[in-house]
Amino acid sequence: xxxxxxxxxxxxxxxxxxxxxxxxxxxxxxxxxxxxxxxxxxxxxxxxxxxxxxxxxxxxxxxxxxxxxxxxxxxxxxxxxxxxxxxxxxxxxxxxxxxxxxxxxxxxxxxxxxxxxxxxxxxxxxxxxxxxxxxxxxxxxxxxxxxxxxxxxxxxxxxxxxxxxxxxxxxxxxxxxxxxxxxxxxxxxxxxxxxxxxxxxxxxxxxxxxxxxxxxxxxxxxxxxxxxxxxxxxxxxxxxxxxxxxxxxxxxxxxxxxxxxxxxxxxxxxxxxxxxxxxxxxxxxxxxxxxxxxxxxxxxxxxxxxxxxxxxxxxxxxxxxxxxxxxxxxxxxxxxxxxxxxxxxxxxxxxxxxxxxxxxxxxxxxxxxxxxxxxxxxxxxxxxxxxxxxxxxxxxxxxxxxxxxxxxxxxxxxxxxxxxxxxxxxxxxxxxxxxxxxxxxxxxxxxxxxxxxxxxxxxxxxxxxxxxxxxxxxxxxxxxxxxxxxxxxxxxxxxxxxxx
Length: 500
Ligand SMILES: *[C@@H]1O[C@H](CO)[C@@H](O)[C@H](O)[C@H]1NC(C)=O
Ligand SMILES: *[C@@H]1O[C@H](CO)[C@@H](O)[C@H](O)[C@H]1NC(C)=O
Ligand SMILES: *[C@@H]1O[C@H](CO)[C@@H](O)[C@H](O)[C@H]1NC(C)=O
Ligand SMILES: *[C@@H]1O[C@H](CO)[C@@H](O)[C@H](O)[C@H]1NC(C)=O
Ligand SMILES: *[C@@H]1O[C@H](CO)[C@@H](O)[C@H](O)[C@H]1NC(C)=O
Ligand SMILES: *[C@@H]1O[C@H](CO)[C@@H](O)[C@H](O)[C@H]1NC(C)=O
Hints:
This is TOD1/MUCI70 glycosyltransferase-like domain-containing protein. The protein has 18 helices and 15 strands. By secondary structure, the chain is α/β, with parallel strands linked by helices. α12 (336-345) runs antiparallel to α15 (411-422). The relative contact order is 0.13.
């Protein structure tokens, strides 16, 4: 409210200056000015007065709305719609408050005062979720422009999901059996001692490091209660483990369990994919498959240091509002088509492959985000995910992962698509981005990340060298989709910010 008032005051002052310039003419204006110019001055004066009144009116309406909607955040997210001319105009004039980068998270003061719910949220829509775990190995050949990429030496981690199975996996039923990674012998294998250890973990803080890209960061502000309650599980591949061993002190317990500070290291053997980015999505999205006893989990990317007590986070993001799935909204984008545009511009993945994925989504009816959608955004900030592991949430995670397995590893795009396909039954809490930024401190990666595929501009580049660039165990859907989506029109994208 204060901010609003000062904006309008500033506006008045600015307006007065302009008016004064007209009302108190300087010496340049002599009395024998022609009538026409005096008339013109009057007209301009009128124009300014009307303009200022109009702006004041808009500000008043805005203020009234903010005041009447109890939460200004909900209000702004509801109207902060880039299609609205008034909003765009106010924004370009600098009259809308800029969203803050960080804001305080409204957590309770005392972790000891948090009441943990006695029972799980009951599973109503999906009661029994089963996973396909054995499939006869098929021919792992990707037909690609007359050539083939073959790797028949291993079963695929993501399985051989047909397009019909994919379609059916989105149809909710009380008992469902779906693909969800972890096909037998497909890779991502835990050691038996770690399997034993995680069986006792009901409350999990999980993180992951792949390809030696980060080193573990110790979380801070963890209360004694949370230290007892939570397992802190850091999932790493062999390459990262070897890097960590060299770089930090790894402590071994009497069972041979590996620890770095509070983190228990969980080494995954046999990476399921060629691309480290895709491997990293296994613990992040399929947390419930690696840690099947977890009732609650908080995922945090490996480059981050958690600085909020995890029990306070569960209270804030799940229990207080009776939510079961919480994720932050993206700072800049609400539509997956805008996000895809930004990914291409920042060369985060092969541009032609991103195009194929979103053209498939467009072809399958995915609309760009608009205020009439049920979620405040289609694009999440996926580096922090807070989940109760209900059957429906686990299903959502499986379906989200299946998209990552089939198409590109850019999971912000597939997240929005899975939301769209699952429909109203799947509920989630998308919390403000400024709170998200207060959950962690960001650390630098150990090196610049760049894989060759990120720089691919044209599909022809894959043709030139079909070994190496095309992955042999993931992303098949991009090349096997039954419809030629080349000519699908994508919704127009307006670039709203330099940073985005
Ligand atoms: C096939 O996958 C196996 C297991 O990851 C790997 O060792 C092998 O190099 C791959 N072969 C080709 C041709 O990519
Ligand atoms: C649920 O699955 C059963 C058995 O496959 C089927 O008969 C039924 O129609 C399905 N229900 C819905 C709502 O799709
Ligand atoms: C670990 O690696 C980081 C960056 O890669 C470096 O700054 C740090 O000095 C290393 N620590 C040890 C103990 O080698
Ligand atoms: C992280 O990297 C940036 C730029 O590469 C550098 O300016 C900054 O000092 C680094 N921070 C730390 C903590 O090493
Ligand atoms: C094709 O890619 C492989 C693996 O990246 C590389 O070793 C080989 O030199 C490339 N061949 C050509 C002709 O570019
Ligand atoms: C897909 O359609 C485009 C034009 O719409 C065409 O140029 C291209 O050859 C087609 N691709 C295949 C594999 O049929």
